[in-house]
Amino acid sequence: MVLISFGRLSSFLTYLAKTAAVLQVCFLILLFFLPQVPLLLFYMATVITILDLLEEIFLIMILPQWETDVKGLYWVLRGKKIPGS
Fold it and tell me: What sections of 34-85 are H helices per DSSP?
């Protein structure tokens, strides 16, 4: 869908994507070092990843042209970016 809309892959780098990546890494590291599977962390990572993917789909539908470093759906809808970026 991104390739059709913009002709290249997305690189939004949203806060949800960063949070999902951190949770996934924490889960994978703890998976190898704890005697039991950290299910709560797994479910948290799964929910945040699903929300991130939904946010990215909405961003693709909303944005008229390709953009990089979009902070999130909230900032796109408000028409603002975070100061300093």
Answer: 39-62, 73-78
